[in-house]
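User: Heme A synthase, Pallidibacillus thermolactis:
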Amino acid sequence: MLKKLKILAVFSTLGMLLLLLGGALVTKTDSGDGCGASWPLCHGQFIPTHLTVETMIELSHRVVTGIVALIVTIFAFACWKYIGYIRETKFLSITAVGFIMIQSLIGAANVIWRQSDFILAIHFGVSLISFAAVFLLTLLVFEIDKKFNAETLVIDKRMTLHTVGIALFSFFVIYTGALVRHTESSMVCNSWPLCQSGILSLPNNMYEWIQMGHRIAAGLLFLWIFYVMYVAIKNYKNEPIIYYGWITAFILITLQVISGAFVVFTNLNLIIALFHALFISILFGVLSYFIFLISRSKLNKENAEKFYKSKKMYPITMEK
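Assistant: Predicted structure for Heme A synthase:
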């Protein structure tokens, strides 16, 4: 049964990634109206007689959403049944199914009633939460054989605060990026990293503020992750999952920034734009895993003292 559960876990995670990219494709190709104001049918039909590119993209996304939602629901139920004794399983199962349903309802509400760009920008973030829950459930399934025991990790308070802060701030960066797409602010600035070539003035309108706000937030996230990677390399050489995990996070945020720049340089090249969405999705999954590790980490006084002494660090907050 464990082998089947692992296969289902992999399909669920890959399905969620496909769903995220499908949603990004709908937004980036302006295919949200591809099925008109009809939902769940498309132009009032199961298969429309007149198929445009936009209709095919929107209809395909709806079909994929339905299939992935079914797979994730089966996966969550199986996890609840077979590994429900693990502390995080039930919460992650409910989160995975709940947020994929919320994501679907937000999409349906936009088709039927039309939502503001600021509400629609939440759509991608909601999908990411569902993806993160499925990803963590997958890791729980693969953790059953105890080849890696997260509970043996020792994560200090500084790393904990930085990790939680970065995870929360990354969600804000994701929201601003989605807002750029939904407000069609992607090309309001004709250069990068500044909005206008050779001009150091403030943005002139709301769309430029949205675009530059996202760039500044992404830049701050890049610097923050770089710093934490430095801390991890310096202090966590004996914890490979933290050491290499933060190196991976830095590689992903670097690719995210580079792909964002090339979106501008290539005038919204679709493939690059989809990679831009893919990198941030994987990065959010990695950050979610760090939060999971923190919840598993048991930093008691004895382990903390050993950790700090091994690094010759003596924080003033530690009791003697």
